Amino acid sequence: MKIVSIEVFATQLPLVRPFIVAYDTFRELPSIIVKMTTDTGIVGYGEGMPDPHVTGESFYSTYEMLSKDVAPLLIGENPFAIEKLHKIMAAAVYHAPTAKAAIDIACYDIMGKATGQPVYNLLGGKVHASLSVPFVISILPPEEMASQAAQAVADGYASIKIKVGDDPATDIKRIRAVRQAIGENVQLRVDANQGWRNVATTMRVLKQVEDCEMEWIEQPVLADDIIGLAEVRQKTTIPVMIDEGLHGDKEMREVIMRQAADLINIKLMKCGGLYPACKLVAQAEMAGLGCQVGSMVESSIATAAGAHLSIAKSMIFSNEMVGPLMFSRDFGKLHYEKDQLMVTDRPGLGVDVDEDTVRELSTQSTLIQ
Fold first, then answer.
1. What Å distances lie between residue 308 and 233, 293, 297, CA to CA?
2. Residue 51 CB: number of other CB atoms within 10 A?
């Protein structure tokens, strides 16, 4: 089997409501869609959701890199030769994980379709019976966040994740208000997205909310400050999760060496796709670190890829595959029942991609063959 063409689409996906985190406010999100076709007629789809604040890639740089630097090198290659393809991409461009993830996901979609297997069977087989997702709340005034959280619990969600990090004093009020609104038995996850920046600010906040029974605090300090994250972990009883600070093997080694986190947040867009993500899971298992598969708020395509990974690995105890719930339009459809994401057993990613919608929402496209 050989890759005979790759088409790259630069699209913009509209959100139901603005998504507000410590470093930006999003009203729509840029998505790079890859359509990969083989000489056997099998088509696979991949997605890259770049974020300059996290992956160091912009919408336009990812599109141009895929169109001009990466995709042309893969024509004629076998999509099953996934390690070889990653080596080709690594030799062509340094880092650029989102661009590589889009290719990687399309290859796995093809592999699954060619073998008649869902992607999770290519990753080890289904180990979890189902996937539960949290309800994610943007940075808002404390009373609004509390109201949304209470409604989500009434709708059947067992876990609430809140974004904080714009103002420490208000963040304390946010955390307390949400905990009071959801009661004692609902999981509360808190993500600062680097917003507290340093150890001193982080500890000032955490000491005032220790009684709020948080499941964990995610990325409270700057991404590059793994030493600082380790200090936070030493000084608090609240489990610490690293997100923006973990991309690939280099950071993983440092996290393990410094015992800097209790938990890691793996994102396909940060590490370069499913193949490198499996390596991170294996390293986490050796180090006894719990894993979450996070999302850059992706469409059904990349969300499905993350869901297949999540359900196939026992070390992955949590996932945040919520992107499709946040868009007013999507390229496919995943099935959610309250807080449960139902992972399909259809071949490949199991997503029926509506190419008309892809083309309609595209601002530009390039065909490489």
1. 30, 10, 16
2. 23
- Using alpha carbons, select from 326, 246, 227, 235 the residue that is nearest to residue 289: 246
Sign of the CA dihedral running 337, 339, 343, 349: positive
H/E segment holding residue 71: helix 71-74
Tell me the C-alpha to C-alpha distance, in Å, between residue 276 and each of 36, 101, 123, 194, 254. Answer: 20, 9, 12, 24, 17
How wide is the angle at C-alpha 360 spanned by C-alphas 25 and 332, nearest 5°? 75
Q: Are 299 and 11 in contact (CB under 8 A)?
A: no
- Per-residue confidence of the chain (369 residues) as pLDDT tens digits? 999 999 999 999 999 999 999 888 999 999 999 999 999 999 999 999 999 999 999 999 999 999 999 999 999 999 999 999 999 999 999 999 999 999 999 999 999 999 999 999 999 999 999 999 999 999 999 999 999 999 999 999 999 999 999 999 999 999 999 999 999 999 999 999 999 999 999 999 999 999 999 999 999 999 999 999 999 999 999 999 999 999 999 999 999 999 999 999 999 999 999 999 999 999 999 999 999 999 999 999 999 999 999 999 999 999 999 999 999 999 999 999 999 999 999 999 999 999 999 999 999 999 999
Task: State the catalytic residues.
Answer: 163, 191, 218, 243, 267
Angle between helices 274-287 and 97-115 (to 10 degrees): 100
d(CA 266, CA 357): 29
360 by Cβ neighbours in 10 Å (0-12 / 13-18 / 19+) ranks as exposed
The token duo for 214 is 């948080």
Distance CA 133, CA 339 (A): 5
73: number of Cβ within 10 Å: 15
Please give the backbone phi and psi of residue 201, each rounded to the nearest 5 degrees, phi first: -65, -45
